[in-house]
Amino acid sequence: MNDEPDDTRPAGVPVDDAPTGTPARFADELIRPFVIGTLAVLTLIQLVERPPDRLPWLTWSLVVVTITAGLASSVLPWRHLSARTRITLVSVFMGAGAMAFPLAKDTAAPALVFLASVTAGEKLDSRRVAFTVVGAGTALTTTVNQLAGALHLSYESPWWLSLIVGLPLYIGLARRERADALAAADLAARQSRRAAASEAREAALEERGRIAREIHDVLGHALSGIAVQLDMADALHAGGRDRDANEAVRRARALAVSGIGETRRAIHALREDTLPLPETIARIAHGSTAGFEIQGEPGEVRVEVAQAVIRTAQEAITNAHRHAPGAEVNLLLAYTDRLIRLTVTDTGTAGPGARPSHAGSGMGLVGMRERASLLGGTLYAGPAEPPAPGWTVRLELPR
Predict the structure, then answer these.
(1) What one-character-per-residue DSSP string does 152-214 give?
(2) Domain-by-domain residue ranges, the chain?
C-alpha cells in the first residue's frame, strides 16, 4: 500500500476541488454535513432523554467535541486549510469519537467514529497519515472500550466491534480515488477544449495571414503601379504634356485590368485548397493549354506550400503567354522525400525586348520569390539552360 501523498491527482487540483456537480462534491457539501448533523441531533436527544449514569460531564464533553470536529471537517473550505489544520481536525474527530464510543453506547454517538474513519481516508492528503490516524483511533477505541468495561462504566459490547472502526477507511480511500479520477477527467476535458480552441485560433490566424499575403502579392503591386502612373499623369498634365499624360492613364488602366485578372486567379487558387495539389495544378495547366507531368509519389504538403506552388504556376503561365505568345508551355511537379519542386518551361526565345533583362524583375515574380523565401525555399526565373531555348521558372520548397 502506497504510504506517500496521493499524487495521482493532477497538479494544482485539490482533492475536494472536484468538478462542480459531481457526486463527490455533492457528498462533501450536502450529504456529509446532513449525516453528521442527523447523528448529532439523535445523540443529543438521546443524551437528554437518558442522561448517562457515569461521568456525564465527560460524556457530554466528548460528544460535543466529536460533533464539532465532524461538522468542521465537512463545512469548512477544506482546500484553503493548511495540512496541519486538516490533520488536527480529523484527529480530534477520530480521537474524541473513539473515547465517546464506550461512554455513549445507548446513543448514535458510536457511529461518529466510523464516519471519522471514512473522513480520514477521503480528506487527508497523505495515505500514511490517514492510516496512522485511523490506526491510532482504532487502538484508542479498543483500549478505552476495554478500560470502560473493566471499570463497569458502560454496558458490555462485542469485543470485535471496536476493532472494526478502522475498516471504513477503505471506503474513504475509494471515494477519494473516484473524486481524483473525476477531477483528472474534467481537467483533461478542459485542456482538450482549450487545445482545440487554440488550434482553431492558430488555423484562423494562419489562414488570415495567407489571405493577407495573397492580397499583398496581387492587389498591393497592382495598386502601387496604378498610383505611380496616375501621379505621373497628373504631373505630365500640369506640365502641358497631355499626350504623355494620357499614355500614363492608359498604362494605369492596363495595370488595373491585369490586377483584376490576378485577383480572380488568386480567388480561384484559394478555393482550390479542398482539391489535392496535383489535381489543382493539372486543372490550371489544362485551362491554359499547357502540358503537365508528375514525378515521384504525391503526398501531403502544408497549405501554405501548396498555395505557393499554385500561385507560382499561375504567374509563370501568365508570363509565358504574355512574353512568348504561341510558345509551348510545360509544367513538371516533382516530389522528393524532403522537397516539392515545380518547373514551368516554355519554348519561346528570350531575345531582346521579349524578356526582362534581369531574371525575376517582374512584380509577380518578386512576390513569388518573397513567398518562397518565407517558406524556406528558392525560386529561379531565367533563361533555360543551353542548348534548350525558352524560359524556365523553378520553385523548390520543403515539404
Answers:
(1) T-S----TTGGGGTTTTHHHHHHHHHHHHHHHHHHHHHHHHHHHHHHHHHHHHHHHHHHHHHH
(2) 23-167, 275-399
- In whole angstroms, give the CA distance from residue 97 to residue 223: 86
381 φψ region: left (φ > 0), alpha (ψ -120 to 50), beta (else): beta
Cell numbers linked to 249? 492613364
Please list the ranges in the chain whose pLDDT falls under 50.
Answer: 1-24, 350-361
**At 372, is the secondary structure helix, strand, or coil?**
helix
Q: Give residue 352's pLDDT.
A: 42
As a whole number, the mean pLDDT across the chain is 79
CATH 2.60.40.1090 fits 275-399, yes or no: no
- Nearest-angstrom CA–CA distance, 70 and 117: 11
Closest CA to 318 of 373, 257, 272, 385: 257
Query: What pLDDT, on the 0 to 100 scale, is given for residue 158?
Result: 65
Contact 218, 262 (CB under 8 A): yes
* Percentage of the chain lying above the pLDDT 70 cut: 81
